[in-house]
Structure formats: C-alpha cells, structure tokens
Specification:
Number of strands: 22
Mean pLDDT: 90
Helix content: 25-40%
Strand content: 15-25%
Bound molecules: 2-(butylsulfanyl)adenosine
Largest sheet: 5 strands, mixed
Structural class: alpha+beta
C-alpha cells in the first residue's frame, strides 16, 4: 500500500479514537492542539489522495451547506412509543401484570433514564454508519444521516469488536443544557423566537437543512436499544454494555432491578438526583431484561408490553401574583411580566415569570392578587401554568392587557395574525429609541467600542442622541464634559465610531433594527441585493423571492424604507461613510476549504461569471472539472443547468449547490 494511504488509515483510526475519548468517554488523552494537528495532516493527505475519499472520515464531520429535502425511509422494525405512568403505584401494577403474563414469580427489569430529546434509529453495516432515520410516524421517518454525522459522540466507524455485521441502534438525540442556553441567548440577541425547551431545540436542529449549522449547535446522543439478528447477549442489560464497549454513548444510569422495592428505590433516588445531569430528562424507563420475555410479551399497536415510562412531575410552586408589568422592547413589542412573591423553585428564587402575550393571560384567566402555579420544567424562563381559583379573593378583577404604551402613552396596535401588541411610536418612544441605539452599537452589529446600554441612556439624557445617525455627529468636546467621560474614554468612543465605518454591509443591515431581520437574514439579504439602493427600491415580489425572506419580513423591510424618518437617517449614515454595498468579491481570500473536492460548474450565475467561479474554486484549493463523474464532489449549479447534467447528477447522487450556498461555504 502507498505509505501515504496507509498513513491516512492510521490517522483516521487515531482521530476516531480521540473523538471517542473526548466525546463519549469524557477522558481526552491529547490536547486540542495535538488533535488539530492530526486533523490537519489527514486533511492534507486526503486532498492529495481523492481516491481514498471516505464519507465517514473524521474530516467529514464539519457538515456541508448542502440544502436538499430529506428522503423518507421505512423502518425495518416499527419505532413504537412507551406507555406513560405518573405514579409509583402504576409502575408496581406494571410489574405485577408482567409477572402474571409471563407466569413467573419474579421478573428482572432494567431501570434507566428517559432522555428528553428526539428519537433516532441508526443502522451500521460492517461497523460503518450507513443510515440515520428519525422516528417520523413510527413506520416511516426522515433520512437525516448528513446531520447525524456531525454529532461527534456518534461513531462513524466502529473499532474492531464483537458487533454483528448488521445492526440497528436506537437512541435519543439531545441538546445538552449548556448548548441549549447558548443557542437561546444567541436567538434572544437576534430577536428570533426562543426554543421552549431542549427537546424542541434538538428536534428542530436535527431537521435543519443545513448540516454546517447542525454541527455548530452541539447536539449529543444517548443510546438505549439494540436491534439485530446476532446480538451479543440474550438480555437488554448486557447488550447495552456491549454497545458501550463498541463506542456508543450508553448511560451508566442503568440498573438491573429484581423487586418492587428496588424499583421504588430507584425512582426515589433519581427523582431528585436527575437535576444534576447535564441533559434534560423527563422520566425513567423500566424494561424487561430478557429478550425472550420481551418477545413473549409483544406489543400493542402503540407501545411494547415489556416496557413502561415513569414520568417525573414537573416541579412547580404556588405563590402570589403581586403585579403585572408591561415592558417595551426595541421593536416596540410589549411583553407582559408577572411580578411574584419570591418563591424557591428547583434551587433558585423566582420573582418574575413571563406571561408571554394577551392570549395566554386570557387562557389562564388570571386575576390580580391570585395564587399562581409557577413551573420551570424544561424552560429557562419560569412560566405561570395555572391559577389556584379556590383561594381567589372574591373582589379581585381579571388582569387586562394595557391599551397604551406604558413608556410613552401611545395607543397600542395588535399586528394582524400575531399575538403581540406593539407600540407604533417608533421614533418617540424612549425605550425603543434607546433599544435601537444599543443594538446598533452592540458587538455583533456595528461593534462600537466604548459605549454600552448605560452610556446610550446617558447620551440620550444629555440630548446628544436621538437616533443612530446622531452617533456620527458626536464631537469630542461634547463628550468631555460629561460624567464618566475622561480623555481616554472619549477618544475610545470617537475612534470606535470611526472604525465602525468599515463594518461590512450585511452587519450594517442587521444593525438597523428592521423588525425581524436577524444576523442570518441580514446576511442573505445583503448578498441578494448587493447594495442599499437596490434594497430600498426592490418591489415586494422580488423581496419575497430571497431565501429566508417571507411576506411578513418583506413587508417590514418595505415599511422601514418607506418611512420618512428612516429615509433621513439612511441618508445621514450614507454621508457619514457607512458601508452600503457588499464588499467586492475580488478579495475572496485563498483557503484550503475546497481541498480534495472536484467541482463541476453548470448553468449561468448572477453573482459571478463561470470563469470567476473557476478561479474561486482554485483559489480555495478545489479542482474544477468539465464533466460529471463518480469523483465529482458536488455541482455548482444554477436553476438553468442543463437537463442532461441534472439527470446524471441525480443518478450518481451528486449534490447540487446554489451559488449563494457555495459562496457561504468558502466564506
Ligand atoms: S425505549 C419500544 N428508552 O421516549 C421502546 N425510550 O416516550 C422504545 N426515550 O420514542 C423506547 N429515553 O424517544 C426508551 N431510555 C429510553 C429512552 C427512551 C428516551 C424516548 C424515545 C421514545 C420515547 C417514548
């Protein structure tokens, strides 16, 4: 064998082992630096040897931006769900039922965690991951292999072991608490809707059409069942121990239980102890250990008779509602917040809870001074889930939504089709003005050093700021006299404002606070319109044709640029010298992002000519080829690519990549 190919194989094994040590065993044996060096070496060698390409190589975990729908796959064995119970007594009933059905005096159960995520079935053949499918309706699910491959704790290729030639492993894809919190913080910043709990976040992420984004979010997986013809053992417990040996993440919280007493003890222990786990759990699962007994018990249409889920009670507390306040955000949306008599809930003191919107307030039929139930469950922000009407004071009146803005007194508007009330006084309502300026200067927007929320409030109070354009008129001598502004801090702010003139167009767009335009949609918008004048004059139909821009966002954009106030601000920002045009792509940097990739170009494009794309491919380490073959990594394709090429690509299963996605890929 060519020594470089041998080295490729060696590096793949070594990197797979380190991935296992880090993500599964939680016991890394080399530094990140050393790991990166090995990865780099493998990437370089793979680029040199395209014939050794392997879709399961550790280099392939980063995920591509390929956008295509999911293929539907039929499960070989149906994916059933579990019947639920909420009391220990019902679990005891289950045990008695099972003993009777099997006609045995005692039955051995396995108690384990019920992970709160979304289920997955993964098939391995000859130790290689061949397919990952969601539960779907239990019979047919979505093929999400590309997304699952990005999850580092899932083995792509098993080390040598006693695994059967073909088997299926089932488990739960989860988003650990820390990754969930990080994701929601980011979404809050971008004013995108928050995920209510890690389960929604995990299933939403797994179904995304962009594996690179999936890779970024930090999913993890826990496995709880093996299926196949030649499993190593005749019982569940030992099979799971084998799966653990093969490199799967199988929870150590798994115990053989021989009596009702042991089952009850297991429940009471984990009922509290589970709160210390890094992932969300919503109960325990009890399974009959013997596979022969499992087979004898069989299943109903919905769930197996050999297993049962015991669900944890969500923790809740009863406390008094002191008042409801209405807060105004930077886009004018009014958020109702319940102020509560402080109460201890899952280890933290809760004083405030979100009431979300008017509809929720109505549904709860919440009255002033009510005793209310607060829950934390899977959510980060505690919420009110019910009212104890028995203890209601008979003279109390229902909580009503404010009709006028609590900050500026303007009558509120309810956007059609939405639950939110909005203060329309965009340019006169103080918290909206301050919120927009604070957003404009923030790190992910214009990244202006030397100014934060407090300074924004201070400069507004001093009469120096009324809108974002005023920033560019600020003079050092105006600042110098103010509290907290010494020479150094003044220079820092003035310099920061000057530097912000180099911030690229897409971030300027994001910074403007166009309702609903977050970081990502601003990027897509910038790339599609290229400059602000195109955007200002773009008709609605053309706006909605842009990826990710629906009719609601398009209307927001139109409304924003039709506004006289905004027009004036935009012109002032333009004279200040802000970037109102997408940066010239001629300065696309060289990289090795396309190393090892053979790319065919097909069709005509709007952002670059074919020759330019050829150059871009080469500048980024890729190879441009004239015709499609098995070796083609992907096709840079426009909508009008030739039908013959399209068919050949389809036959060979070669992905088509749009020019937008391609440019994003190399960015
Ligand atoms: S066993 C045929 N074990 O809970 C029985 N399920 O409510 C298959 N789940 O769809 C399920 N942790 O997504 C099993 N330790 C565990 C589990 C578990 C979480 C999920 C799974 C299933 C759902 C049923």
């Amino acid at each position: 064998m060519n020594p470089e190919i041998a080295r490729i194989n060696e590096l793949r094994d070594e990197l797979n082992r380190h991935n296992y040590n880090y993500y599964v065993a939680n016991n890394p044996t080399i530094s990140d630096f050393e790991f990166d060096a090995l990865m780099k070496e493998l990437q370089t060698l793979e680029a040199k040897h395209p014939e050794a390409f392997d879709p399961l190589s550790p280099t392939q975990r980063v995920g591509s931006d390929i956008t295509k729908g999911f293929t539907q796959v039929r499960h070989e064995k149906q994916m059933l769900s579990l019947s639920n119970t909420y009391s220990v007594a019902e679990v005891d009933d289950f045990i008695n039922r099972t003993r009777q059905a099997l006609q045995v005096p005692d039955v051995t159960l396995v108690g384990e965690m019920k992970f709160d995520g979304t289920s997955i079935s993964i098939t391995y053949e000859n130790g290689r991951l061949v397919r990952a499918v969601t539960r779907g309706d239990g019979t047919v699910g979505d093929d999400v292999t590309e997304n699952v491959k990005t999850i580092r704790s899932i083995p792509l290729q098993l080390p040598k072991g006693d695994w059967p030639e073909k088997f299926e492993v089932r488990g739960e894809i989860v988003l650990p608490w820390d990754a969930f919190d990080r994701l929601n913080k980011e979404r809050e910043f971008n004013e995108e809707p928050l995920f209510a709990n890690p389960r929604n976040a995990a299933s939403g992420t797994l179904k995304m059409q962009n594996p690179a984004e999936v890779a970024r979010r930090g999913l993890d997986a826990w496995f709880y069942y093996l299926l196949g013809d030649n499993l190593p053992a005749d019982n569940h417990f030992d099979n799971m121990a084998a799966a653990r040996r093969w490199g799967f993440k199988v929870s150590k919280i798994m115990k053989r239980l021989h009596s009702i007493k042991e089952v009850d003890d297991f429940i009471s222990y984990w009922d509290t102890e589970r709160k210390t786990l890094p992932v969300a759990t919503d109960g325990l699962v009890f399974k009959v250990d013997s596979l022969r007994q499992q087979l004898n018990l069989g299943a109903t249409a919905k769930s197996p008779r050999w297993a049962i889920a015991y669900k944890f009670q969500a923790e809740r507390a009863l406390t008094r509602l002191k008042s409801v306040s209405f807060e105004v955000g930077r886009t004018g949306v009014i958020t109702p917040v319940a102020n509560l008599e402080p109460v201890l809930l899952s280890g933290t003191i809760v004083k405030r809870a979100s009431l979300h919107n008017e509809d929720i307030i109505r549904q709860l039929d919440i009255h002033d001074d009510d005793m209310v139930y607060v829950e934390k469950g899977g959510e980060i922000i505690p919420k009110i889930t019910g009212v104890d009407t028995d203890s209601r004071n008979m003279f109390s009146t229902p909580v009503t939504f404010v009709s006028h803005c609590p900050a500026c007194g303007t009558p509120l508007l309810r956007i059609e089709g939405e639950a939110a009330w909005v203060c329309p006084n965009k340019y006169g309502c103080p918290p909206q003005i301050a919120g927009r300026i604070a957003h404009f200067v923030s790190r992910k927007a214009m990244n202006i050093d030397g100014i934060g929320e407090e300074t924004v409030d201070q400069l507004i109070a001093a009469g120096l700021l009324k809108n974002i354009a005023d920033l560019y008129d600020l003079k050092a001598d105006q600042l110098m006299g103010l509290e907290r502004f010494a020479v150094k801090s003044t220079i820092k702010l003035i310099e920061g404002i000057k530097d912000s003139k180099n911030i690229p167009f897409e971030r300027v767009l994001f910074a403007l606070s166009i309702p609903g335009i977050g970081e990502i949609s601003a990027k897509k918008l910038a790339r599609a319109v290229k400059n602000i004048d195109n955007l200002i004059s773009m008709p609605l139909e053309q706006l909605t044709a842009i990826e990710d821009i629906g009719s609601g966002l398009a209307a927001n954009i139109k409304e924003y640029f039709d506004d006289e106030n905004n027009k004036a601000i935009i012109e002032r920002l333009r004279s200040a010298g802000l970037q109102f045009e997408i940066a010239q792509d001629t300065n696309i940097e060289t990289s090795d992002k396309l190393a090892g990739k053979t790319i065919v170009i097909s069709g005509t494009f709007s952002l670059h000519s074919r020759d330019e794309y050829k150059a871009i491919i080469e500048q980024n380490g890729g190879k441009n080829a004239g015709s499609i073959s098995k070796k083609t990594s992907f096709i840079l394709a426009s909508e009008n690519m030739g039908p013959a090429k399209a068919e050949k690509a389809n036959l060979l299963g070669i992905p088509l990549i749009s020019e937008d996605d391609f440019l994003q890929m190399i960015q």
